[in-house]
Amino acid sequence: MQKRYLTRSIIILALLVIGGSHTLAAEGDWLVRGRLLVVDPNASSSGTLNTLDVDSNFTVEVDVSYFFTDRIAIEAIAATTSHTVTLRDVDSGEVMDLGSASLLPPTVLLQYHFVPDGSIRPYIGAGINYTIFYEQSGMLADLDGLDGSFGLAAQLGVDFMLSDTLSFNVDLKYIDMSTTVSSNGTKLADLTIDPLVLGFGVGWRF
Fold first, then answer.
1. DSSP string spanning 130-188?
2. Element (H, E) at 63
3. With 129 labelled, which of 18, 78, 79, 141 sits at a CA distance of 20 to 30 A?
4. Cβ–Cβ under 8 Å, residues 62 and 201
5. What's the whole-number average pLDDT of the chain?
6. pLDDT value for 22
7. Where exactly are the structural domains of the chain?
8. What is this structure's pTM?
9. C-alpha–C-alpha distance, residues 66 and 74, integer Å
């Protein structure tokens, strides 16, 4: 009898660990995360300056999610980062530093969470962003200013539950981002940035 009870207890414990022993994400829940981000642009340009490039950088992000149901949530993210823009000479291959610009892309994503009661909770998301460019330096400061842009955003992520309220998060986003480079009213280039954004962080649900 004791052996049967012990075996049953071990099975139940294993199921709880594997299947998720944490509280179900529920309608009305809020989730706040802080993430460390790696922002890796996939830059290209067209026009007079058709060899522009944008470097990668690190930053931090704060995001807030609200759950309409246990599976459907909306997430708003805020982060800013600075990037150096370079121009490559086609003939010599020499790369010229044009300066840097900061960008702020507020983004809103609608998410679907696949396993709201599991210890591992993957999700996908899609939404929109509006990118604001500011604090241009170097040669970029002499331009007319980089135009803001609307774009789409897509997301894959997973929360690893550490407790009923605390989680470790890994998140990958693609953000559709572009701008126009102009000087004295003359357009010099259409610059596409389109970064992949990889994030690691912690979340607190309440």
1. EEEEE---GGGGGSS-PPPEEEEEEEEEEEEESSSSEEEEEEEEEE--EEEEEETTEEE
2. strand 57-67
3. 141
4. no
5. 88
6. 58
7. 2-205
8. 0.83
9. 5
